[in-house]
# Entry
Amino acid sequence: MSAASLTLFVLLSPFIAAALAPLATRLMGYRAAWLLALIPAGIFVYFARLSSGVSGGGTVTQGYDWIPSLGLRFSWLIDGLSLSFALLISGIGALIVLYAGGYLKGNAQQGRFFAYILLFMGSMLGVVVSDGLFTLFVFWELTSITSFLLIGFEHERAAARRAAFQALVVTGGGGLSLLAGLLLIWNVTGISDLSGLLAAGEVVRAAPLYPVMLILILGGAFTKSAQFPFHFWLPNAMEAPTPVSAYLHSATMVKAGVYLLMRLFPVMGGTVLWETVLPLFGAATLLFGAVLAVRHVDLKMMLAYTTMASLGLLVMLTGFGTERAIDAAVLYLVAHALFKGALFMVSGIIDHETGTRNLTKLGGLRSAMPLTFAIAMAAALSMGGFIPFLGFVAKEEIYAALAQGDAALLAACLVAVLGNALMFAVAFAVALKPFWGETLETPKHAHEAPVLLWLGPAVMSLAGLLAALFAPSFHAAISSPMASAIAGEARVIDLLPLPHWGLPLALSLLTVAIGIAFYVGLASLRAAVTRLLDAIGWGPDRGFDQTIAGLVRFATAVTRSLQPGRLDSYMTVTFVLVALVLLLPPVVYGELARAPFFPAHIPWHELAILLLAAVGLPAVIFAKDRLTAIVSLGIQGFSVAMIFLLYGAPDLAFTQFMVETLSVVILTLVMTRLRLSPSDKRPLVQVLPDAAIAIACGLGVMLFLMKVTEVPFDSTLSDFFEQFSKPLAHGANIVNVIIVDFRGTDTLGEIAVVMIAALSILSLIRVRAGGLRQAEDPAEETPAQGGRR
Amino acid sequence: MMEPVLAILTGLFFAAAVYLMLSKFIIRVLLGVAILGNAVNLLIFTNGRLLREVPPVLAAGLDVPAGPVANPLPQALILTAIVISFSFFAFLLVLSWRAYEGLGTDNTDRMRVAEPEDAPLPPEGY
# Structure
């Protein structure tokens, strides 16, 4: 198997596993998790083996042609950035599958859940390894769709449906913005893959449309990564089962936007616009997220808002784009994925084992759940930035990057200190408060979680510790190649989890001090934030509901104005358009018919028949009683038959005679039964526009027909039928031969239409007459009137 | 060269059909549909050019027509069209009859079973 096809198989394997997951779960129950986790674990091993080649700065670019005519390829680019992401996705993915095995044990829909989560994993892997811009977009949208499915997993609950819909609208809308941005980049540069684009950054940044491209791309990245003011879908997404929150909505999917920004940093970064917009939105998101986090008492909601804050921090760092800021972003991204995923899983364990996630109802769990407590503390120590965890290394680098610059960086530094302090308080509120203090009564009797539940967070917390303890190997394998790929030049990170005397350490200590203060005063802080939010009263979450409701009302209004339910308005629109189509183009393009040659002499009998036909028409229109109307209709019909007879179409004439006779007979029957008055009751204000439309249509057809008949006739088809009617089909009547032989299948279709019409007529006649009226008023049911049976 | 004359006649047919179909009264719409069928047939017929009194039928013993004959192609099309428009007309006629019986009106403005005037707003929420 070649390297390319092996990688393709690896990338496709989650999708294959997703197809088989329901079957495996039906056969093995929750134990299928052990089997299914082997797929992401295998992917992890595969990518880990690529690591040695990529960490030196090499890239793997392979793929297949997708749409060769457009130059689009299904190809992948594996460098330090995509490899680190792929390792996070597959590694955490394996742990999440195990965790979901324990968390949803006994759920009848567990197979479906495994399928969705594996589908998501495949899509997310596709996002980070895609080389083609448009394969990236397709996978990007797939992650939105799988996120929708996972948030709405418990679709019996309206809140879950709303959250799923909201996430899909926000991230899907952002996806469209991303698509527009990618198309624009493709249009301007002619490049449709990232590997080519990375070398063409100058062209993109110098393009006049660069601001538009950047804003469109940011529209995709900011919605996906829950940046203010598009953040509101992320907390609502906590309606999903906890494995989803841990995996999609903290460790991986929400980082897709950050990934995109990092990926495009060498292409679009470093401009004034980039260095203004990203830090501003990032800082706002960091601050809002951190402040909103302390307002909640639900463990998952607190974690969700800190995730939002962390994403803001990452966007802010990517925005500044200095070398140390990129280093800091890389370290913090990995650290965050590990500690936040672990904390989410811990909150899920607490929920699972005690029956509540309400912070105020939890306490003293340390004796019942010592292992979970240890895991939670390890994660929280990393999140709080304590030695010797990865979080400490990341935080040192963040402060080092921000504290040595101009006013903007210093302002960002203050925001970071405040945000980190708030997150510190939340981290320990989640990890310490439920376990400490006096034991509180919980809905379920608390006991230690089974291995499937604690294994994932344990591994992730431990990884956050080991990555820092063995920092040189970690940097060599993950952070240095990742930072190099983002910066577009070789970077070496060599930070050890040791205190470095200086400003960063001082800021770290300050953060911890403020954080402890916040932790102690959490209840009053919460009350203050709640009062503030109540005073504001409105937020984008409510705005979303108002927008959707407004959209529904707007659509209803548009539909009602376009479809008022009145036949004559539909007819009016239709015929006005017909008249315009017939009259406008010839006038605009000067294609009107020339003055026609009227024949000098028309035989008197022909003239008589034509006049008769012409007289029949107004007779129908102006008929005062129904018999006149029917007879007049007959006049024009029989005149048409005569015209057919005059110009060599006896078959048509006979058919027309028969049909007109039948029409008149049937019409007489129905009209006398109906007691319908055929006379017109239109007021004059309606007659005039109607007449104008009718005359315009007639004029249009007339001019069109004159124009058509003045150009030479192409008789190829007619000649063919005349030539071969006898030799091939052995028929002398050429019209008949066309109908039954040359175009026999058409005639079969025609007969079918006639038969269907006849059957419909029959059933209409037989249906109970009361049926229709019943729909109007059930009380008014009358015996069938006039229905033949 | 009768084509321009028939073009005028066809235009008249269309105008009459459209005027009738713009009415609010179902039976006049139907009369319009009937005339529209003839109008379209005349349009196709005249498009194929006119030739007097030579039906496209081969004389005995001939394999191809001896001289020019009327164009057989539009005739074949129209033959199909006549039959279809007749069945369509008959169907519409019976449909209007049943609608009149069921709804008690021949005014299309008041035939509102499918699109009721005071239909409720679509539900809001999720």
User: Anything to note?
Assistant: Residues 72-103 of chain B form the longest helix (32 residues). The CA atoms of residues 83 and 89 of chain B lie 10 Å apart.
